[in-house]
Amino acid sequence: MKKFKGVFFLAFFISLAGCSKSKPAVPVEDGRNQKLRTEIENGNYEEGLRLSKDMAAKNPRDENNEEALYLKAYILAYGKSDFQEARTPLKQLLDLYPNGPYALAARKLIADCQYWQGHYNHAMADYKNLGTNEGESGLTGYVQFQTANSLLLDEKVGDALTTYRELVEKHPLDPLCDSAQLMIVNIYLKLQNAAQAKSELQKLMSFTQNKELQRLAQKTLRQMEEEEPFRKGVGVPQ
Is the pLDDT of residue 235 over 80? Predict the structure, then answer.
C-alpha cells in the first residue's frame, strides 16, 4: 500500500474520540479536593496547580493525594497541553497507589499523552498494557481504536486497516465502531480506491444507528456515484 502521513477526514466527519485532545469531565468525589476541582472547572489552572502541589507536599500518603496527583496531571494535559510534564504526577500516582481508584485513569492518560506527543510506538505499548484487563475496564474499543490510530499515523496503513476492522467485526456494539469504519473509508479515499471506499460506506450505513451519520453517508455515496463517470473520463485511479 501507499505510505502517507496524517489522519484524513470525510467532509461529514464527526469528532473522533482519542484522535483529538477531547477534554473529559473533571472527576467528582467528596473530600478536601473540592476546591481544587472547582478551580479546574472554572479554568483557573495556575491556582489548581498551586493547590495540587501544596496537597502533595504536605503528606504524600494522604488519602486525598491520589486524586490531587491525577488532577495535577489533568491540568497539565488538558489545560496546559504539557503532555511531557503531565506524565510525572501520573507515574508518581501509580508508584504510590498502583491499585487505587485513579490507577486505570492514570495509565490511560499516560498512553494518551504519548499519543498526543507523536510517540506512537510508546503509545501502542502503553495501550497494549492498558488492555491487559480491558474487559474489566470497559476500554476494549478505545484501546483498539487508539492502537489503530497510532499505526496509521506511524504510516503502517495495512496494520491500521486490520486493527480498525477487528474493532468493527469483533466488537460491533462498541461506541467507537462508527469511528473505526469511518477511518477505513477515509483510508481508501486517500488511496484513491473509490470502489472500496464506496463498499465501506455502504457497510457503515448498514450498521450505524446514528441517523445523521446515515444521512450524510448516503449523500457522500451519491456524490461519489455522480462523479464516477467524470473520474473514468479523466483517468483518475479507481
Answer: no
